[in-house]
Design goal:
Length: 229
């Protein structure tokens, strides 16, 4: 839902350049942090999760115009560093196959990467009080709500037609009837809520299943809990 499917040449130049610069700095920090990590098991998992995100984000839930991100799943399984890199890899491939412009890779990566980071933090915070399923589900809803607000903010400061973000534009076509940012926010938040619930259920189900069959993927704490049962 927070992936902007708009073509190149729509967003102001200063905005997408800023997005690319900030994204490059974030990716650079993540790559440097990889030196301190044991990547023997994480790199194959990074590839698998990125592939799952790529497939999910290529499919649309009709008629909501909603795309499942699986970004919170990535954050929980990979951690914030690799989760952010998974968001970058996914957005890069999507842009190269025409699913959104190349110039919005930076902003899209920052949005989805933020979801991976927040989803990871909220899940392990909520896990102290809730079950695995509910921790993952609630973390997903809260995360997507926050990043959707960020998406609305990007649309507001860009002064573009919000309809281009909601549906995208084919070959640079312009819609005849522009909608206001306020109306765009109402549409995105109301339809998005339905999508968030669907994604929360999927995320909760996936993470609960993994906690039962492969708890070590969710961190040492959950692995010890599973062994002690």
């Amino acid at each position: 839902m927070t992936h902007m499917h708009i073509p190149d040449g729509v967003l102001p130049v200063w905005l997408w350049i800023l997005g690319l610069v900030v994204m490059s700095l974030a990716v650079g920090v993540c790559v440097l942090r990889l030196r301190t990590m044991d990547l023997r098991k994480k790199i194959p998992l990074l590839g698998a999760v990125s592939a799952a995100m790529l497939v999910a984000m290529s499919l649309e839930i009709f008629p909501l115009a909603y795309h499942i991100n699986l970004s919170v799943v990535a954050g929980i399984l990979l951690g914030p560093i690799l989760g952010f890199l998974a968001a970058f890899i996914t957005n890069l491939i999507l842009a190269l196959i025409g699913h959104g412009g190349v110039t919005v890779i930076g902003l899209n990566t920052l949005l989805l990467g933020s979801e991976a980071i927040m989803g990871h933090a909220l899940f392990f915070l909520l896990k102290k009080r809730l079950t695995v399923f509910w921790s993952a589900g609630v973390a997903t809803v809260l995360t997507l709500f926050i990043t959707t607000l960020a998406l609305i903010g990007i649309v507001a400061i860009s002064h573009i037609d919000p309809e281009l973000v909601r549906h995208g534009a084919e070959f640079g076509s312009v819609h005849e009837h522009e909608i206001t940012v306020k109306r765009f926010a109402i549409i995105v938040l109301s339809l998005g809520l339905i999508g968030w619930i669907i994604e929360a259920f999927i995320t909760g189900t996936v993470i609960r299943f993994i906690s039962q069959v492969k708890p070590e993927l969710l961190g040492n704490e959950l692995h010890k809990d599973k062994v002690g049962q």
